[in-house]
Amino acid sequence: MSDNASKVDAVMGDMNLGPASMNLLGGVQIRTAIGRAMGVDVPNTSDVTLVGLVIDDSGSIRFSNLTDSVRQGHNLVIDSLRGASSKHSIQAHCSMLNTGQLYPFVPLTGAMMLDTHNYNPQGNTPLNNRVIEACGAIAAKQAEMAASGINSRAVLIVCTDGFDTEERRGGHSAADVNTIVTDLIKTETVIILGIGVGDEADFKAVFQSWGLPKEWIKTVGADPKELRAVFQTASSVAVSASQNAGSFSKAAGGGFNI
């Protein structure tokens, strides 16, 4: 068993997830991915906000000429968090659908910006698999924080331009995503924002099948300017959520309407 999987095993009993969600995280491969995402830093603070990003790097992003806009959108979120008064209590994590983790949960100084070297979309859309990993990483990191007496809240931003392509190959289903998303939402400490780009899929239906409330869903056309504007709003939600418990509740209630 890998050291990363062992890290997850150490906090599994403290995760705020039901039995069905825990079953989804039972394999060594997914526990290893979650352990890698947890990073190594437990901050010396009483309150932490975790901000995760799941970014679509499938070939259709490139074919739709959205590559630069997605790069800019991710970087805008990180820049906005770095400018927040709460920046020292924020940790960020980013994973790509195909190439996997870009960086684990780290202080904002360690978050990598997207550029032409680390973001070049190609491949399929293993959306459900990667979102379950990201949700598991949040649950594990929150459990790790709680064990150290640290309060935590989390915002997960998911951006995609297509349907999941891997369920038919044995990957996870939208119902599986719904299982873990529902458990996270019940904690009242996690916001999950779904950004759907283009017209390849009915993104409202996709995100609602995961259990996301309508306020946490935003769909835009394959327009670079519109996509950047949505990332700007998502960053505003994340910054607001990081301020305090009251601001988090307001951000959760408003979502993209904040």
Topology:
Elements: H1 3-11, H2 19-24, H3 28-38, E1 47-55, H4 59-63, H5 67-82, E2 90-96, E3 100-107, H6 127-147, E4 151-160, H7 174-186, E5 190-197, H8 203-209, E6 217-220, H9 224-241, H10 245-254
Parallel strand pairs: 1-2, 1-4, 4-5, 5-6
Antiparallel strand pairs: 2-3
Q: Could you characterize the architecture of this molecule?
A:
By secondary structure, the chain is of the alpha/beta class. The radius of gyration is 17 Å and the shape is globular. It starts with a helix and ends with a helix. It has a single domain (3-257), classed as von Willebrand factor, type A domain (Rossmann fold, 3-Layer(aba) Sandwich), CATH 3.40.50. Strands 3-2-1-4-5-6 form a six-stranded mixed sheet, sandwiched between helices. Helices cover 45% and strands 18% of the residues.
